[in-house]
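Hi support team,

I'm filing this because I wasn't sure whether my run with guanosine-5'-triphosphate finished correctly. The job status page said complete, but I'd like someone to confirm that the output block is well-formed before I use it downstream. Pasting the exact inputs I used:
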Amino acid sequence: MTHWMDEEAGPVVRPYALVGGRTRSSGDALDLVALVTATGAAPSGGFVPGPEQERILALVTTATSVADVASELGLPLGVVRVLLGDLQDHGLISIGRASASERILKEVINGLRAL
Amino acid sequence: MDFEPSDEPVALKILIAGGFGVGKTTLVGAISEIRPLRTEEVLSDRGIGIDDTDGVEGKTTTTVAMDFGRITIREGLVVYLFGTPGQERFWFMWDELSYGALGAVVLADTRRLTDCFPSIDYFEQRGTPFIVAVNCFDDADRYDTEDVRSALDLDPDVPVLMCDVRRRASAKTVLITLVEHSLKVLTASQS
Ligand SMILES: Nc1nc2c(ncn2[C@@H]2O[C@H](COP(=O)(O)OP(=O)(O)OP(=O)(O)O)[C@@H](O)[C@H]2O)c(=O)[nH]1
Ligand SMILES: [Mg+2]
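And here is everything the job wrote out:
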């Protein structure tokens, strides 16, 4: 992979090289705090996860947010979305988002007070 | 009534918005560990200026670094803070950032109060619960919250408070005020 310096962001791997220049339209954008979990299924149908996707699978053995995946891998969100989309299409991860209930918000308020 | 198994992980999103240099990054850093997060996005039509890409083939991408902080309330319950990019060319990111957000903190500076108008307009239109936190810079004149409320023409139910985002205790109060407000909005929508 080619590394070079981005003056603002530091060393970068040309990210879209990882995903063949593809992007996902914002229509199917993954929420930044959607939680990604490996299903544990074996790759099938000739799909071979790439190295970055293997790193993702290793990371999301417990539920991990999309933003955390991007941050941990040091890859831009747009790229992570495409990598995740492929994994999801092949049944290797599930992506979910629980909405906030009253009970959860009260718990957050108490948790923040205790910080 | 929704039954939620208590071990189902929940991730919540809070946005920190406001004009250039108003203290967004400082606030995120005061209350959480800032982590690196970049997004390289394809500029949508809305993000491209008229002079930009007429007749240019191919994708226009831009790299944006975001303020990104994480507060773990307990295992399986995490609050994420996202500082919204200030420049207007990044409006397209706001839609995605605000989608499903618990709420937004609009930071204001009384020396440049109008800088936060776009943020307020945006969250009002989106129906995202928000509060206005006035970051009190040392050399700014003091106003009270009601002065700010009327200057910004805010609804009476929008909380306004003074803060110093460099102080952790103050940053904490800001977030608690927002979550309490979001809870109120949620409760009202359910009754
Ligand atoms: N005196 C004083 N200075 C502050 C306060 N909050 C922030 N600053 C300073 O103001 C400057 C800008 O703060 P930032 O947190 O970077 O503001 P920002 O909103 O992230 O700025 P942009 O991302 O550039 O829009 C920094 O030098 C801070 O140290 C405050 O409450 N009082
Ligand atoms: Mg900043």
